[in-house]
């Protein structure tokens, strides 16, 4: 199969998990402890994938300095974008909204919040999908661990966020339109990760991988773990470590 097509297909597979989660979250009232537990597990899976598949790979390719600088740049860029979106109503975009203090605002409460939520979902999803395409550059085979990690983490993200959108009064067209668009954007991001980044030197590829890793780590700390801790705080450590070990085992299988 053509590598560009393969990158797009794997990006679509990972991104479609957001749409799957949105369907469940919008149509089924999943117990909050279940959502929180799956979110914690997904966070652990992503942390492991970032550590061994992304930062570790960047270090092996270019050394400590590019890996560290890239990771910090990615985290800084994500944080800056997240702060900008938070002021426009997207602060709790991954929250299910069952607690008023952490509910997403409706459009009537904060104009433009719907667009901010959509942009926030894009901000969260693009780095994850881009590294799927970049992983194809290493020997022509996608990192199945990275795909699995993104897919597993995307399901609870879409589930929790779509439940919050529903509670904020947003309809099916908006909810599924957003997540369908993000799934499509994931496909494009994976393709660009392969085609654009692949034209550069190994040092640049390593730096880009590290930037994506930093953005993903910042996203985990800022949006996934808080939602998980809210309802599964007594077990979040164990569940997160379990996800970490599953991903670690896959990467060394």
Automatic annotation (TrEMBL):
<feature type="transmembrane region" description="Helical">
    <location>
        <begin position="64"/>
        <end position="85"/>
    </location>
</feature>
<keyword id="KW-0812">Transmembrane</keyword>
<feature type="transmembrane region" description="Helical">
    <location>
        <begin position="173"/>
        <end position="194"/>
    </location>
</feature>
<feature type="transmembrane region" description="Helical">
    <location>
        <begin position="34"/>
        <end position="52"/>
    </location>
</feature>
<keyword id="KW-1133">Transmembrane helix</keyword>
<keyword id="KW-0472">Membrane</keyword>
<protein>
    <submittedName>
        <fullName>ZIP family zinc transporter</fullName>
    </submittedName>
</protein>
<feature type="transmembrane region" description="Helical">
    <location>
        <begin position="200"/>
        <end position="220"/>
    </location>
</feature>
<feature type="transmembrane region" description="Helical">
    <location>
        <begin position="232"/>
        <end position="250"/>
    </location>
</feature>
<feature type="transmembrane region" description="Helical">
    <location>
        <begin position="6"/>
        <end position="27"/>
    </location>
</feature>
């Amino acid at each position: 199969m053509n590598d560009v097509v393969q990158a797009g297909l794997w990006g679509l597979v990972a991104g479609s998990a957001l749409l799957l989660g949105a369907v469940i979250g919008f149509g089924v009232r999943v117990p909050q402890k279940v959502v929180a537990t799956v979110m914690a597990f997904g966070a652990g899976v992503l942390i492991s994938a970032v550590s061994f598949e992304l930062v570790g790979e960047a270090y092996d390719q270019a050394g400590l300095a590019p890996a560290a600088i890239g990771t910090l740049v990615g985290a800084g860029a994500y944080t800056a974008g997240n702060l900008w979106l938070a002021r426009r109503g997207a602060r709790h975009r991954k929250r299910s909204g069952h607690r008023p203090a952490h509910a997403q605002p409706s459009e009537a409460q904060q104009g433009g919040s719907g667009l901010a939520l959509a942009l926030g979902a894009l901000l969260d999803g693009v780095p994850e999908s881009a590294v799927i395409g970049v992983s194809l550059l290493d020997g022509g085979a996608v990192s199945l661990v990275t795909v699995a990690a993104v897919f597993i983490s995307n399901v609870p993200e879409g589930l929790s966020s779509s439940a919050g959108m529903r509670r904020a009064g947003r309809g099916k067209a908006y909810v599924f339109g957003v997540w369908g668009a993000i799934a499509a954007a994931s496909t494009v991001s994976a393709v660009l990760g392969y085609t654009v980044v692949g034209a550069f030197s190994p040092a640049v590829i390593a730096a880009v991988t590290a930037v994506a890793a930093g953005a993903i780590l910042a996203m985990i700390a800022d949006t996934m773990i808080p939602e998980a801790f809210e309802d599964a705080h007594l077990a979040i450590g164990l569940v997160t470590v379990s996800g970490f070990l599953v991903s670690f085992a896959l990467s060394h299988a």
